[in-house]
Amino acid sequence: MSFDLVHDNASEADDSGAEPVQQLAQAQPEVQPEVQPQAQAQVQPQADIGAEFAALGLATEIIKAITHAGYTSPTDVQMRTVPVALTGRDLMVSSQTGSGKTAAFVWPALQRILDARNDPAKKREKGRTFGPRILVLAPTRELAQQVSHACSVYGYGVSGLRVAHIVGGVPYQAQLKALRGPLDVLIATPGRLLDLMNSGAAILSQVELLILDEADRMLDMGFIDDIKLVAQALPAERQTMMFSATFDGNVGHLAQQLTREPQRIAVDKHTDAHASIEQRLHWADSMHHKHALLEQLLTDKDMDQCVVFTSTQRDADEVAYKLGQIGHAVAALHGGMPQGRRNRVLQDLRNRHLRVLVATDVAARGIDVPTISHVINHGLPMKAEDYVHRIGRTGRAGRNGLAITLAERRDVGMIRRIERFTTQPIAVAVVPGLEPKYTAPTMNGPAPGGRPSFGGRGKPSFGGPRGDARPAGGGFGGGFGGDRRPTGGGGGGGSFGGGFRQDGPRQDGPQGGFRDGGRPQGGFRDAAAPQGGFRDGGNRDAAPQGGFREGGFRNDSRTAAPRGEGFGGGDRSERPARAGSGGGKPFGGPRRTK
Length: 594
Fold this sequence. Notes:
Blueprint: H1 10-16, E1 22-24, H2 37-41, H3 46-54, H4 60-68, H5 76-86, E2 91-94, H6 101-117, E3 134-137, H7 141-154, E4 161-166, H8 172-178, E5 185-188, H9 190-198, E6 209-212, H10 215-220, H11 224-232, E7 239-244, H12 249-258, E8 263-266, E9 277-283, H13 287-297, E10 305-309, H14 313-325, E11 330-333, H15 339-350, E12 356-359, H16 361-364, E13 372-377, H17 384-391, E14 401-407, H18 412-422, E15 427-428, E16 548-549, E17 552-553
Parallel strand pairs: 2-7, 2-8, 3-5, 3-6, 4-5, 6-7, 9-14, 9-15, 10-12, 10-13, 11-12, 13-14
Antiparallel strand pairs: 1-4, 16-17
């Protein structure tokens, strides 16, 4: 089987990580999307399987690709969304990650392309440059790449389908070439798309369908003005589909401006969206204790692949480096890395060359790998909603998953907010030999923002010394063995300046940060550390912002996250100030009437 990919400049695309244009031949793709394992086990006649998708109104070319990808029946969001989308009506869909929502808008988009090709009035002249019929806006590079991959897989039966994705962090030259000639589908992050629109390279005058994927996240990242400016450049006579976890607040206001008489579809609520995911909470006394718990949890023999979430890019690099030193097949993924390297890391994860991925929230957005069995929150998210998106990396496509959160006493407020948001308590668990030194905080105390109670009246309850001490050699470099203990490193009393301390109890104060004039307990060697990449010399080029150099971190006090990592950033580059949203001018001119 082969997948005919036509790149205008293959070598340049490989170096930059861009996949600017894909022209799909009628051949089966080598890389398939995530299938439904439960559906695989069912034996159904092929005609019956195809009939379920034909009932949605999809063409034979699309149905063949869907069934080849492993689907035997549509999911709830697909059954409720696709037939309405094919009527041309605007949609506002509330659905959580892992519910099949990407296919829910890719399938009708492909159907629209097939219908247009069969319409003589919409036939395009060969050799001319035409803008896309379908425009998909996504908040992050990885999510845009995931949508592009879905178009490739489900559209391999659509002859001559041309798909391009435009994201930040990729050289402009490759993307300019991607926009030349006729284009069917364009997937883009708002900031980079607006840059190309301002330069006249992106032609959006023929867009028939606008899709906003994870609209709430795009607003969180500060893209609301960019989205409005993009919408102004689109034809008024278009269909708009918005997908979001919620349509409250600003997301709802934006939907009112971009859609006309939309139909609301609410599928999974966050309270039951992850019923297939077991959630556990481990209390840690300090960062030192948290590292020891992480190392032990990664020895779980039932773990297939794992995503470890950190709060900052620097933490992602540190944790990935430490895990690599004790033998794990691990890499970091965050917004400070060049796009080409981020693509290679994701490809290694999909090809099972990595067992552990250490990532930040934004970088991990859009990761859809069904073999991820575990998610570990090494650092807590800034928002309760992000917790739901994090744990949604596992338990996908009908599989079960395990989500583990490592929290310190100072995190009790966020744990309360997460439990209140999900309306589900997180079960507290312990690792034998690594029980917390202090009594676990009570979770039925005051609301977040007040002073938490730790078993006493305003003071911690320590409960006395533990009877059974932790095994010597805890933390990275000491190790606890186990059935899945990786080989290569970690023995001989630790690998990071002696590893974590083995003598005496842990101190009460916070640990994990650098002290004046020296390293923290279990800190780094004086030698330069690789950038959370692969062991044995793989992919260590191009250090991201906040990276390492000899002697530890740079001493300048730059923030842990570059542009695009925080809520107010995004992926766009610096550009001159531009006009606002037009003083309330309707987006795209007067809308159609029905």
